[in-house]
# Entry
Amino acid sequence: MPKGLLAELKQTKPFPSRGAEALVSILRTSAVLEHQLGEAMRPFRITPTQHNVLRILRGAGPAGLCGREVAERMVARVPDVPRLLERMEAQRLVSRERDAADRRHVTARITKKGLDLLEQVDPVIGALERARLGRLSERTLVGLIEGLAAVRDSS
# Structure
């Protein structure tokens, strides 16, 4: 049985409410998962944010997406997507092409190197997913997904 949040955080006083406990639990879980994702991707020399961009561009297919569209699809918002894409272009993971008619519009596409990298990373992420979520039942997963969606929608 997993240890409780109070014990995990070495907290002696109870939370003032179930909502406060749930909020801290979500934040703690996010931090743990983000750390593990970062560690899992370290050997591939990419960050979870770069991985997210590569997945987005793989899903976009050959048409690619402009930086604004990439930003809208990110799991976590980042302040400077153009700079992120520029760094990824320097790594040859993405290519960028400026529109001749509108110089402000730049289309980003995943490169073969980016696709090859995702092929290597996907099994590692799958193993992490199974290690963290594999012991949860389908019913529990559905409840978790629905509950977190309700939290996000309440803003």
Remarks:
- Strands lie at 65-66, 94-98, 106-110.
- The chain has a mean pLDDT of 92.
- The chain is about 60% helix and 10% strand.
- The CA atoms of residues 41 and 121 lie 7 Å apart.
